[in-house]
């Protein structure tokens, strides 16, 4: 979906929802938006970002990993702000259904647990122990994960979660020293399915649009 981050969603560009949630949380000294797209940066500035950061081309192509781009934004923000960050939070623009409470709870969990980083998840609709399939040699299907004995009911399989792409939290040290998301003391914040739609396709956008029109949304 080209241009999805600034596509109109119920009268506002998509990215405006994440900026507003960050502001409403009261947690942040400054709210930065990082992008290689000048239109996104311009919209972000109009809708409440304190600063915008032009992402380098090498961190903005289709093969660039996410964490180095966030680390670049942190270092750039520290240079402009004149002091080091304690905690860095990434709120993806494509997850407007998160609540402010999700942001606050995620940061509080990191602080209380002493974790290096935390990310949000939602219960998986499919289990790798029961109905997620990989194709092996010759295209032969097999379960993605197995246990000592075969799982015959999904309810008997271990609890599994999907990363929902909504909230990521790091200590400064963890973000500086790691390119991986899963560290020795990583924590998660569990969110319900109805707040966990990450807009990647037109169908995702339509689902979010519909959910936000319901009386209980927001």
Automatic annotation (TrEMBL):
Instruction: State the superkingdom.
Output: Bacteria
CDD domains, per the entry: CMP-NeuAc_Synthase (cd02513)
Query: Which UniProt key words apply to this protein?
Result: Nucleotidyltransferase, Transferase
Q: Name one GO molecular function term.
A: nucleotidyltransferase activity
* Database matches in InterPro entries: CMP-NeuNAc_synthase, Cytidylyl_trans, Nucleotide-diphossugar_trans
Enzyme Commission identifier(s): 2.7.7.-
First-tier enzyme category under EC: transferase
From the Swiss-Prot or TrEMBL record, give the protein name.
Answer: Acylneuraminate cytidylyltransferase family protein
Organism equals Fuscovulum ytuae
